[in-house]
Amino acid sequence: MPLPLPIPFPLPLALGTDIVHIPRIARLLGKDGGRWAAPFIRRVFAPGHERMAALARLEAARKKGDGGVERWIAGRFAAKEAALKAHSSRRLSFHEVCVEVGRVKPFVVIRPSPPRETAAAGAETTADGEVETERGQVARLSISHDGEYATAVVLAVDDYVEGTEEEVEGR
């Protein structure tokens, strides 16, 4: 006799976590005299205010000779990776995951990227020049730093249900 199916978790919640070695980010940002810093930031941070904030922090850190920007970027990178893992049933890109700061804590907003044709065709834009998209889905975020590591945990709603279609319909 086959075992009965386990009772599924009652809430559509998903958890994602990631850890980043900060010296790895520092090496990447300083590689070839910093030549790879801007391409890395363009690849990871969404166009508009998120990318501008990262580039501004990077430039300010270079002028001051401060290494704190690596910790900040490593934390944001870990947060984006954790959000991708929490939404594993979706095919998200780094640009669709935006880390924002509320009054007290940071949080993640998942904003689907508009099709390239929409952006090129003069779609509605925000004051920052970003193309207006859906409002987005908010997920809870915790970022922590300790020594040479930055870690992040994301708690999100994920409507994906495990099992075959017949099993899901039978529940």
What does this protein structure show overall?
- With 171 residues, the chain is of the alpha+beta class.
- 37% of the residues lie in helices and 22% in strands.
- It is built from 6 helices and 5 strands; from the N terminus they run E-H-H-H-H-E-E-H-E-E-H.
- The protein has helices at 22-30, 37-44, 49-64, 68-86, 116-120, 165-170, and strands spanning 13-21, 97-101, 106-110, 137-146, 149-157.
- Strands 1-5-4-3-2 form a 5-stranded antiparallel sheet.
- Helix 1 packs across helix 4 (68-86), helix 2 runs antiparallel to helix 3 and helix 3 packs antiparallel against helix 4 (68-86).
- The radius of gyration is 19 Å and the shape is elongated.
List the helices and strands and how they pair.
Blueprint: E1 13-21, H1 22-30, H2 37-44, H3 49-64, H4 68-86, E2 97-101, E3 106-110, H5 116-120, E4 137-146, E5 149-157, H6 165-170
Antiparallel strand pairs: 1-5, 2-3, 3-4, 4-5
Shape: elongated
Distance between the termini: 19 Å
Strand percent estimate: 15-25%
Report the count of strand segments. 5
Please tell me the overall pLDDT: 80
Rg (CA only): 19 Å
Strand order of the largest sheet: 1-5-4-3-2
Helix content: 25-40%
Let me know the largest β-sheet. Answer: 5 strands, antiparallel
Secondary structure class reads alpha+beta
Uncertain segments of ≥5 residues (pLDDT<50)? 117-123
Order of helices and strands: EHHHHEEHEEH
Tally of separate helices: 6
Short recap of the structure:
This protein is 37% helix and 22% strand.
